[in-house]
Amino acid sequence: MSSSSRPDATFADLGLPVALVQALRNAGIEKPFPIQAATIGDALAGRDVLGRGPTGSGKTLAFGLPMLTRLTGASAKPGRPRGLVLVPTRELATQIERALDEPALALGLRVASVVGGAPIKRQADRLARGVDLLIATPGRLDDLIKQRAADLSDVAITALDEADHMADMGFLPQVTKLLDRTPKAGQRLLFSATLDGDVDKLVKRYMSDPVTHSTAPPAAAVTTMSHHLLYVRDKSVKRAVATEIAARDGLTIMFVRTKHGADRLAKQLRGAGVAAGSLHGGKAQNNRTRTLAAFADGSVPVLVTTDVAARGIHIDGVSLVVHFDPPAEHKAYLHRAGRTARAGEDGVVVTLVTDEERKDVAAMTRKAGVETDGVDVRPGDRQLIAITGARTPSGVAVAAPAAPAQPAPKAGSGNRSRRGRSGGAPASEAARGHSRGSAPHRDRPVGESRGRKPAGTGGHARSGDTPTNSRRRAARPAAPATRRNRTAN
Ligand code: AMP
Fold it and tell me: Which residue windows does the record flag with biased composition (Low complexity) (predicted)?
C-alpha cells in the first residue's frame, strides 16, 4: 500500500489540473472513489501502478485522469499515439473512450479507440490525424501496426485494463508483443480484478517497482449484492420462470452458455412481450453497439448475453443478474455477478438450477466464496416475486431491438400478439429504443428508474390486478429475503 493514499482528498488535492477538475464537476463527478484517491497521486508522480479493484469501482478514471494529465502540453504525431490503453473487448474500449472524451477535450487532447469488427480504414485515417490517447483491443492494434498505420514508439504511458480478462481470453501473447513495441522506460498502469497467475507474469516482466493498491473487496464481497439459487426442476419450468423474471422492472442481464442459446432466449422473451436483446460474439459490431445502447438507456431492459460478449460491459443500474445457464466455473460466476451492484448500488444475483445441476452449482458457488440461499420456484411463486420482482409478461410480442426500424406489431395484427390481453406498449418501447439506440451514455439519468417501463402499460399487469396493485408491486424492493441474505463483507 502506498503512503500517498489519501482517502479524503479531492481531485484537486490529488494534483489534477483545474480544467480537468471542472470537466469532472460538469459531469457530476465531485469526489474521488477510493481506488482513485489511492492511485491518482502515484500515477501522476510517474510511478508504475498495480490496481486491484472490483468492476464498477471507478478504475477508468483512476488510470485515465493521470494519463491525460501527464500527456498534456504536447501533441501526437500522425500514427504515433503517446498514451495507450489496452482492453479485452470492443464494448469496454468504447466505454472508456466515452468516459475520457470530455476530460481529454478539457485538456486539449485527442482520444480515439480502435477495435475489431469496425472498418479498419477509418481507424487508420483517424490515427493519421493524430491521437494522443489510444484505446485499443489487442488484435486490431496489431493489425494496424502491420499495416503501418500505428507505431507505438512514442507511447510514454500504457494502461492495461481488465488484465485478468485479457489473460482469460488468451490475449497475452498479443499484449506482450504490443508492450514490447512501447519504450522500455515508459510508465505502466495495470488494473485487474485478480493479480495472480498470468497477470503476475505481466507484472514481473513489464512493471518496475510498482505501487500496489487494493482498495476494495472482490465482487463476491460487495455488501450490496445478494445471491440466490432458484431451483426450477427442469428446463421447461426454467424457461417459464426466466420469462417472468425478465418481465420485472429494472435492468436485467441474463447469462447463457451459447450464442444460439442467447438468440433463442431473447426471441422467446420478445414473443412473450418482454423487450429483450441478445449480445454475443457472432453479432456485427453495429448491432452490438445498438443493443447495448438500447439496454443502457432502458428502452430494452433485458440483455441476454454470453460470457465472452459480457466481458467488460459496464452499465450502471443493472439491478439483477440471472445465470440462466449456470457458469462452468466460479471465476465466471463472479465476473457475471460483477455486472450488478456497481458503484455502491444494490444488486441481486440469481442462478436458475435444474435438479440435475444442483450438485455442480453448489460446488461452484462454494468455490466462488458466495453465501447463497436456495428456494424451489415455479412460475408465479411468491418467493420468486419477492427475490426478483418477477411478473407475468403481457404476451404481446415485441420487435427485436436491433432490427431495422419497422412499425411496432399491433395487438391482433395476425402475429403472436393475438395472445395479448392488452395494449402494445412494450412493442412501441422497443421501437423507440431502436431509434434512440445511440443516445450518449452521459445523457441518461442514473439509477433504476431508467429501466422502468411506463406505469400503466398493460404489459406488466398480472391477471386480476388493478393498476395500483401492479404499481405497488413494481415499487416493492426486491425482497426482505434479499436483505437478510446479503453477502457478509
Ligand atoms: P468504472 O469502474 O470505471 O467503470 O466506473 C463505474 C461508474 O462509476 C461509471 O459510471 C463512472 O462514471 C462512475 N464514477 C467513476 N468515478 C466516479 C466518482 N469519483 N464519482 C462519481 N461517479 C464515478
Answer: 397-415
Q: Which long-range contacts (CB under 8 A, 24 or more apart) does 461-465 make?
A: 461/392, 461/394, 461/422, 462/391, 462/392, 463/392, 463/421
CATH annotation of 1-218+415-489: 3.40.50.300
218 CA → ligand 1 middle, Å: 17
CA 59 to ligand 1: nearest atom: 3
**CA 314 to ligand 1 center in whole angstroms:** 10
- Protein residue with least CA distance to atom 22, ligand 1: 29
- Which of these ranges, 197-206, 311-320, 437-446, has the smallest mean pLDDT? 437-446
Answer positive or negative: Cα dihedral of 65, 344, 460, 306: positive
Question: In the structure grid, which three cell numbers stand for residue 170, read together?
Answer: 488468451
Pocket of ligand 1 (CB under 6 A): 29, 31-33, 36, 56-61, 314, 316, 342-343
pLDDT at residue 228, as a whole number: 92
The whole-angstrom separation of Cα 74 and Cα 65 is 16
Identity at 232, one-letter amino acid code:
V
Domain borders along the chain are 1-218+415-489, 225-388
- Judge residue 415's burial from the number of C-beta atoms within 10 Å of its C-beta, 0-12 exposed, 13-18 middle, 19 or more buried: middle
Find the range with the poorest average confidence among 168-182, 384-398, 434-448.
434-448
Q: What is the pLDDT of residues 43-99, one digit of tens each?
A: 999 999 998 876 677 889 999 999 999 999 999 999 999 999 999 888 889 989 999
> What is the CATH code for 225-388?
3.40.50.300
Per-residue pLDDT of 407-418, as tens digits, reads 333 333 333 332
Instruction: Indicate the pTM of the whole model.
Output: 0.56
